[in-house]
Amino acid sequence: MPVKSVSRQQSQTPAQQLQQQQQRDVENGIYPNIPAERRSPVRPLRPPTLRQDTVDMEEIPLNQVNVQQESEDRQRMREVFDKHDSDRDGLINTHELKGLISDGYCRDIPAYIAEQILRRSDTDNDGHLDFEEFYVMSQHHKWMMRNLLTRYCRYIVPPPKPLEGDEPDGAYEKQMSLCPPPLTMVIFSIIEIIMFLVDVIYFQDDPNHNQRLGESTNGPAATLFIYNPYKRYEAWRFVSYMFVHVGITHLLMNLIIQIFLGIALELVHHWWRVALVYLAGVLAGSMGTSLTSPRIFLAGASGGVYALITAHIATIIMNYSEMEYAIVQLLFFLVFCFTDLGTSVYRHLTDQHDQIGYVAHLSGAVAGLLVGIGVLRNLEVRSWERVLWWIAVIFYFALMTTGIIVHIFVPDYFPKPEYN
């Protein structure tokens, strides 16, 4: 009887065939969901993916493609590249790359992940991706080629609720630093408190003033530092009036606002920039008041406070793309400014005893906006921002120069000085 040849596959039991199939699947990168007792003893299944804090830039082999296919890929990547090159400089930066990733349904990716992606693909280390670097990245990294951004987010990116240790999302917010500590506005505030207490202590035994705490402008500090239109020759008064406050309410309101807003600016822009904005607002407040109401005395730091308010608007304008919730912040400050302006106009029209220097507020606000654009940090300079910078700087110096010229060469417009 002839001997029949039997294939190896036919001689194997179903269990052995299943085991071999599972081994082939594992070798090909396929991980079926099978019971643990039936898993292959040769190659264990891939362990569950854990959340990482870095980007897994796993490379995949490039398949051999013909010239036509490569041309189509380049054209497709060129369209993606041009779409997200928002400033049309031929380069993709971190923020543009983050926008590209967000379009792939990965909207919670933090900025530091996008920075790592860009850094690992930036072969010439210039901080940007040109098209060739972008194209190579798209060909080598499966998260780009296979549109697996959703899976990428699930494994890599933290959930919407921030976890402990997560970095703030937004390049502007990441610039915040406590070194050096934000003490500029705190120091200004302490000096203002000391000057206020000097006058309060001076009048503590005077029965004519004990019912109106700190409201006298005849104390030693107020007499020396208040803006007095009859002593304009004492030039320091154009700035030093910020240390004088009429009443504890006046003092507290200015202290709260300038500390709250000043520290927020100083964390990003550092002390000297915030000091310039604040002092520019104070100087503009006295200059504007002197030109429009040449016989008005002036006290308080409101010009500097309003400069800090509009300086926030300036930094939002210049760093809009780098800030998280920029539109919310901008709306908040605009609503605040217009509400205060409307209240001020109403009070001025209805209260004949109203003594608030609204011109100082308005002048300080204008100075804060212009000087803020000029000196505060701009994290990514765009062409239109350069034009805006020049406009702001030129306009501010033109206004201040005009005010100084009027004070020097048109003395008859102002009250005669008193030298006693």
Automatic annotation (TrEMBL):
Q: How does it sit in the membrane?
A: Multi-pass membrane protein
Q: TM segments?
A: 183-203, 238-265, 271-289, 296-320, 326-346, 358-376, 388-410
Q: Which GO terms describe its cellular component?
A: membrane
Q: Which GO terms describe its molecular function?
A: calcium ion binding; serine-type endopeptidase activity
Q: Where in the cell is it found?
A: Membrane
Q: Where is the EF-hand domain?
A: 72-107, 114-144
SUPFAM superfamilies on file: EF-hand, Rhomboid-like
> Where does the record place the catalytic residues?
S302, H361
Alphabetical UniProt keywords = Calcium, Membrane, Transmembrane, Transmembrane helix
Q: Which family does it belong to?
A: Belongs to the peptidase S54 family.
Protein name, UniProt field:
GH24104
